[in-house]
């Protein structure tokens, strides 16, 4: 199994869980593969008058529990195997939270930092035109992900509604509020990450006040995780690491008494690039991009991209680290996962840790369906309840089977999806 192929990793994780659970052969085989996938080529008129052709994908992994659900990524190294893996993880994510949804994912191979606003709009609309016949409120519902924002969701929604000739806000989530978005959706993933850290610290009997964290990324998930780590848990975030789109390198921004996420956000662009000079002027130390991983902290929060904690990088993690909270999808390879387990690190697996986003997406769909919108505290209360219940179920299952946390999470999720497949008579 290549460490580079996320879908091989996703299949390997399922195989391991299937073995522990004694899953029957047909169900196992069904759950190893996407049920449907669409490959598209998108001709887009560029600002200079020329045409570029972009490749895109939409994968509907499993819809036994409900319409497939999952974000769309704009990424220069997107591949069908990455999208398949992410769609599989969405299937386990919606199931572990107990949402009546399946799992899917979309991706477009592009570098959004090199596109103008108008090119980005034409690309977003072109992608929606191609996938419109494949998705729908009751079929498959996209959302934002890496490098796609509520702005991108607005263009896609508008394109879809123009095509079908009616309002259909439930076809896509993560929309801005005036177009039928939900209060709290923008910050939901990061908040959910911190809810799961709160629960893990309780299990480890560690008082959250006075704990420290190190974060990889400074996009949507990382920013809200940093805010909530400080405000909700009373902890300190020592550093964040992020990609610099100007010199194409990552840097870690550290402050001994803790970073100020509000300040850093004020000097960060839409793609999570921090203005280095402004940070240095404000007293931040600028370190190597991977320095975040080796910090002496209690909690590590990878909240950027897949495949960062590997056999090679995991040994650099400080013995002080108690919790690895996977804000990103697929940050840890199976070899690294085993190593962390052996070293007694409490891993909060990605599809549990970062499920707050899709949970509020589900609330957004519910609000769209009856065209009545909830207050922010209602959204937070309901999200906290669902995330805490998911955490409890995973923790309890992990203990009962004496397995890694990730396997505990798989057992909960796969059992729910497998039961729905059986009830439908598929297996
Ligand atoms: N892209 C997010 C995720 O990976 C959210 C998906 C959604 O809201 O549908 O969970």
What does it look like?
Helix 6 runs parallel beside helix 13 (376-401) and helix 13 crosses helix 14. With 427 residues, this protein is an alpha/beta fold. It starts with 5 loop residues before the first helix and ends with a helix. A seven-stranded mixed beta sheet has the order 9-8-7-6-10-11-12, with helices on both faces. The chain has 14 helices and twelve strands. It has helices at 6-21, 25-31, 80-97, 117-131, 150-164, 185-203, 220-231, 261-266, 276-281, 334-342, 350-353, 356-370, 376-401, 405-423, and strands spanning 36-45, 51-62, 68-75, 103-109, 140-144, 212-216, 236-244, 249-254, 285-288, 299-302, 323-325, 346-348. Residues 69-71, 93, 143, 145, 173-174, 329, 354, 357-358, 361 line the site of glutamic acid (GLU).
What's the helix-strand series? HHEEEHEHEHHEHEEHHEEEHEHHHH
Backbone shape = globular
Helix content: 40-55%
The DSSP helix count reads 14
Low-confidence stretches: none
What is the structural class? alpha/beta
CATH topology of the domain at 188-344: Rossmann fold
The rounded Rg comes to: 20 Å
- What's the CATH class of the domain at 188-344, please? Alpha Beta
Distance between the ends: 27 Å
CATH 2nd-level architecture of the domain at 188-344 = 3-Layer(aba) Sandwich
Beta strand count: 12
Mean pLDDT score: 96
Which sequence of strands runs across the widest sheet?
9-8-7-6-10-11-12
Hetero groups bound?
Answer: glutamic acid
How is the main sheet built?
Answer: 7 strands, mixed
Please state roughly what percent of the residues sit in beta strands, choosing from under 5%, 5-15%, 15-25%, 25-35%, 35-45% or over 45%.
15-25%
